[in-house]
């Protein structure tokens, strides 16, 4: 049915589980490196600050963010930084060269001083994984990044195609780069769809699998789905909430409305409420 858009075989999906352990947002190695300011880190910092790739960001990259990048380089997750791919409200995404195994990677760097950090909190409150979180801005952002990492893992286990998360360090997430022959993958909004029916079936099944694993994306639309080498890939899962979240129902309704309205514009006779009903009838998030 959906060969064309590379629907993942659920046989390859693992059981959900271990990422539900408590998420620690205490001081990280990067904070310690930033405080210590040894000579090598200072050199790294100067190099990054002078490089073209980071020119626009240098005023917002604090030392601890630079230390997080430094740590990722030291640990071998990143060998060299490419240019920015996208600059959004809370984060900038860069391409980078990863280790030998992973090749090109995407590096998503969150700003600690994100203007809409209050909105972020709403997604975290009510999630059993973040119950202990206070109102501290830095902690919220750090938890957010860890949550994105955990959500990506959970999505993979559920059989949903997302970028593979590779490393997280403070406010920086390294993940598989989604591209087409080295060029970044277009979003569903930018890609020309030859077969919207099949694409819809794949997105619908991924939404069901996500919900079945107890997650609701919460910001799903044609802008957070990439078309990479013939596969549809769901991204931007930082705000995804568990089924227990007080607003999860509302988020699911909104996700379904966004997806249905995109595919309506592609000529399909689909409706958000029907999509939602189908997902609810065919998933068991409480199991
Ligand atoms: N893993 C990835 N591989 C390639 N491009 C990516 C990847 N993740 C994000 N991008 C690019 O960066 C953009 C923004 O990423 P996203 O995670 O949606 O962040 P934002 O919160 O800013 O919307 C995407 O639309 C996509 O073009
Ligand atoms: Mg996005």
Automatic annotation (TrEMBL):
Q: Name one GO molecular function term.
A: ATP binding
| InterPro entries per UniProt | Kinase-like_dom_sf, Prot_kinase_dom, RIO-type_Ser/Thr_kinase, RIO1_kinase, RIO_dom, RIO_kinase, RIO_kinase_CS, Tyr_kinase_AS
Name the UniProt key words of this record, in alphabetical order.
ATP-binding, Kinase, Magnesium, Metal-binding, Nucleotide-binding, Serine/threonine-protein kinase, Transferase
Quote the SMART domains the UniProt record gives: RIO
Catalyzed reactions = L-seryl-[protein] + ATP = O-phospho-L-seryl-[protein] + ADP + H(+); L-threonyl-[protein] + ATP = O-phospho-L-threonyl-[protein] + ADP + H(+)
Q: What class of enzyme is it?
A: transferase
Among Pfam families, the record links this protein to:
RIO1 (PF01163)
Q: Where is the composition biased (Acidic residues)?
A: 11-27
Q: Which residue range or ranges hold the Protein kinase domain?
A: 79-287
State its Enzyme Commission number(s).
2.7.11.1
Return the annotated region ranges for Disordered. Answer: 1-27
Q: Which domain of life is it from?
A: Archaea
What NCBIfam families does the record tag this protein with? Answer: Prot_Kin_Rio1_Halo (NF041310)
Say which family it is in.
Belongs to the protein kinase superfamily. RIO-type Ser/Thr kinase family.
Q: Show the PANTHER family listed in the entry.
A: SERINE/THREONINE-PROTEIN KINASE RIO1 (PTHR45723)
Q: What is this protein called?
A: non-specific serine/threonine protein kinase
What does the organism's lineage look like at the top?
A: Archaea, Methanobacteriati, Methanobacteriota, Stenosarchaea group, Halobacteria
């Amino acid at each position: 049915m959906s060969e064309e858009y590379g629907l993942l075989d659920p046989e390859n999906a693992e059981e959900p589980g271990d990422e539900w352990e408590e998420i620690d947002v205490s001081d990280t190695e990067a904070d310690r490196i930033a405080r210590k300011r040894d000579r090598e880190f200072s050199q790294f910092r100067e190099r990054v600050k002078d490089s073209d790739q980071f020119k626009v960001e240098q005023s917002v990259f604090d030392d601890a963010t630079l230390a997080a990048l430094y740590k990722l380089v030291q640990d071998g997750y990143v060998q060299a930084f490419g240019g920015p791919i996208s600059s959004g409200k809370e984060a900038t995404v860069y391409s980078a060269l990863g280790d030998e195994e992973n090749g090109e990677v995407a590096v998503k760097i969150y700003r600690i001083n994100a203007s809409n950090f209050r909105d972020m909190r709403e997604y975290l409150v009510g999630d059993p994984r973040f119950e202990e979180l206070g109102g501290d801005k830095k902690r919220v952002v750090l938890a957010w990044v860890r949550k994105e990492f955990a959500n990506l893992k959970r999505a993979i286990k559920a059989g949903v195609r997302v970028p593979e998360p590779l490393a997280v360090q403070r406010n920086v997430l390294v993940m598989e780069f989604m591209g087409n022959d080295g060029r970044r993958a277009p979003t569903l909004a930018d890609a020309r769809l030859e077969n919207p029916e099949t694409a819809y079936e794949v997105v619908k099944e991924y939404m069901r699998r996500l919900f079945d694993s107890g997650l609701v994306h919460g910001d799903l639309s044609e802008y957070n789905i990439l078309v990479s080498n013939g596969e549809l890939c769901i991204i931007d899962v930082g705000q995804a909430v568990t089924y227990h979240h007080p607003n999860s129902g509302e988020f699911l309704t909104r996700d379904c409305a966004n997806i249905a309205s995109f595919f309506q514009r592609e000529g399909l006779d689909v409706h958000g409420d029907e999509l939602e009903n189908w997902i609810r009838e065919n998933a068991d998030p409480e199991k």
